Structure formats: C-alpha cells, structure tokens
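Sequence in, structure out. Go.
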Amino acid sequence: MLVTHSFIKVAAVTDHDSVRGCKATVELASAYPDILVIPGVEISTEQGDVVVLGTDELPPKPWTPEVVVDFAKSVGGVSIVAHPFRMYGMGERARNYKVDAIEVLNGGSSQDANNEAKELAKSLGLPGTAGSDAHQVSELFSVYNNVAASLDVDEVLKAVRTGSVSAHVNRGSIRF
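Output:
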C-alpha cells in the first residue's frame, strides 16, 4: 500500500474586482511562516475574466484585457485567463492577448470546458494552471497546482511564467 501525504504550502487569494480579502488573508497568514499566500485579484473585463497574481493593488481602469495584462507585467505579476470556456470566459478571444498562462482546470467548470481550455493553452504554448474558483468553503481544494519553486512569491510567479507548474484535479493530472 502506498500512502502519500498532500499538504498546502501556497495559496493564492483572488477575489473578484477587490483586494480587500487578499490583504486580510496575507496579514492573517503572516503568523504561519511555512505557508505562503500569493496576493492577487480576478478582474472582470468585457471580454472575460483575467486573474492577476502578485499584486495587492487593483489595475487602473478601464479594465480591458490589455490594461490588466500590462498592469500584471508592470508589477512583476502573472496574468492568467480564468475559466476561458465558461460564463465570463474569453474563449478563443484569449488568443488576442499576451497573457502568461491559461486556467486549464477550474473547479466550477465542466470537464468539456476544462478540456477546451487545455487545448487552447497547448495551441498557444502557454502554461496551464488550476483554480478552485471557490465561493464557499466546501469548494476549496477541488483542484490544485504543483509548482516547482521555493516558498517565495517571485519564485512561484516565475515558475508559473516558465511552465514549471502542473494542474491537478482529484485523481487525475494535466502536465504541460
């Protein structure tokens, strides 16, 4: 019998169009030096949602994909197309923006939508990430990322940018 122990060492907090919850979580987590909280935000644009990791500030308005992606780059963050083939997703329009990654596993998306996202990421040569898209505690940890990096925000962001990340759901996994 093989027994493995899974544990969370890094969590990214990305509320919709707000960084208030993120700031509070980072502050609370400071008491636990062995857990890293990556600040971020999920921005709603007319073309679809974009996650920015590595910021505790909102991008300037108007919130267009170009503005959000440029903001992410300017702060050393990472831009990720969120749930591209679900409601508020960019779908194929993601091809028009210089994002760093595509969310290929979304806890709130169907398997078909996640498969389409995986194909989009592959066709663009971009890393694939996972996001629980949790709006309730029961939705946490439905998917996760395995990132080859130390417990340092900049190192984790670099690993995502360079594709040193794999997205996992329950018993299966997707590796890029």
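Check: Confidence is low (pLDDT under 50) at residues 1-5, 172-176. The domain at 10-175 is CATH 3.20.20.140 (TIM Barrel).
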